[in-house]
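Exam revision sheet. Question 4 asks you to relate a sequence to its structure. Input first:
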Amino acid sequence: MDSRSTPARLTETATVKLSRPFLLLIGAIYILAGLFFRDPWKTDDVVGLATMVSALADPDGSAWLAPQIGVLAHAQDGPLVTWVGAFAIWLFGPLFEVFIPAHDGAIIASRLPNLLWFGILVGSVWYGSYLLGRRPEPQPLQLPFGGEPSINDYGRMIADAALLLILATVGIVWRMHETSEVPALIAMQALAFYAVARSIDRPLSGSITLGVALGAAFLTRGWIGALPIMLAALFAFHPRGALWPRRAWLLLSAAIALVIGLAWWVPLQSMYPYWAQNWWLWNSRSFVLPEQDVLLSILRDLPWFLWPTWPFAILAVWRWRAWLSAPHIWVPLMFLVWPLIIMCFLADVFEPEYALMAVPAAVLAAFALPTLRRAIVNSLDWFAVMCFSLTAATVWLGWFALQTGFPAQIHHNITRLTRGYDIYVSWPAVIIALLGTLAWVGLVRWRLHNKPAALWRGTVLSAGGLITTWLLLVTLWMPVLDYARSYRQVSGELAAALQQHVQPGECVRALGVGIGQRASFLVFEHIDFSYDSRCTLILQQTSEDAIRDGRAPFSEADVLWQGRRPADRDEMFRLLRVNR
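Answer key, structure tokens:
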């Protein structure tokens, strides 16, 4: 390779070391803000927790191999998140129950694994990017009189930028705080990316790590989650690339992944064939020929989900097009392309599928930064400052309108969506929000007055701006969000109605109750439903329009109770008694 033709133009001052405590601090704020002290929301968040609770409560242990929501078989995804979450509840739940109610202790304990997934994510992104950034292909142009960065400094700058860019990715910030399969799947993909990068110089450890990552991805989200990662790892070994001489080690990775997958699948199929059959049908029927609606939804949703990394990822591929087969472009490109290809062949595509593009987009975007002119980098800095200052101001404005009634139109729009909400001020949350806002102001002031030359300054502003906005949302608005999205209150009302109306020997079955609602009733009040058609009590999920128009089934049955979330304008639950 001719180093004089490299698109990277960089001086030593642009790779000055970013403070490690600062990185640890913003990472901690990112994952801790919004992780605890809130209710689980439907659907993925509360469903994941419900499978953990069901596994712990199952007397015969079947829910460990075949995840369930009470007696409802949840034949989707895989058992890994259930295993890790249930173990966390078993280990730490009793500690939290000393101070808070048991179900609240289980909620907090179930989110501790998110710290593990987040640690795997950021560690893998940083070290994988560092290994690729230290290779000879991406090194910047050597200056006539010296002054270019050292190999280690350049690799560290790329790694810092990739880490900050993954923290700045808009679409995954909420998903990383769920008790669902998404945080684990992102972590396993990041681990597979690191393993492939590691395989160049240490093929044994890299191949072992890759096998573990692929097997764990399969146990996390089945073929839907694992197939794009497997294909990306396979095609990363390009005939013209540095990985090609290590291709034989893929057999070891495949063997490890196969053993991990079969260790779950073989006993599952032997002991619970019905669940295994439904799981296989769910996976196989999820793959279809490309459909226009799916493709249009991808084009519509991906740009905002991957903001702000996707434009830079595309730019990196273009600027480094002469080095397309080099590992620093080819490896993340494969991890980006294959999830996109698989998406086009799925019947239902949304954020869990989009999430697999976040890590490679951030890595590619980091390699685009050294190719940008200083004027463009400065423009991007100002865009980040203006964009996130506006979002932070908008969050504060909405909260001020809710509390004071001014501006009146904004207050009306918010209260219309949160009718019945008892407005109050949580002063600890306000203080945290003020501190976060002051930190953002200090970060902007640092950019204005110090005028740093470090290339990571724009990524610091983007990550800091998103974290500030997220912190404001989960402090100022968490009570409102809990009120609007939680089923705690209606679950308590249903539990009281069941205690009053259920007679000895009488069972309750569900009619039209969604999986998220069913999981919520189980989590908050341990309410489960029978499949016995002879049950004379029915919990029906319907709507006001259906009741008014007489379209709701069992319209002649005795209505023992009806309730709804106060903020929900349509969804309604009715407890009915039918005569046999």
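Marking note for examiners. The two ends are 82 Å apart (CA to CA).
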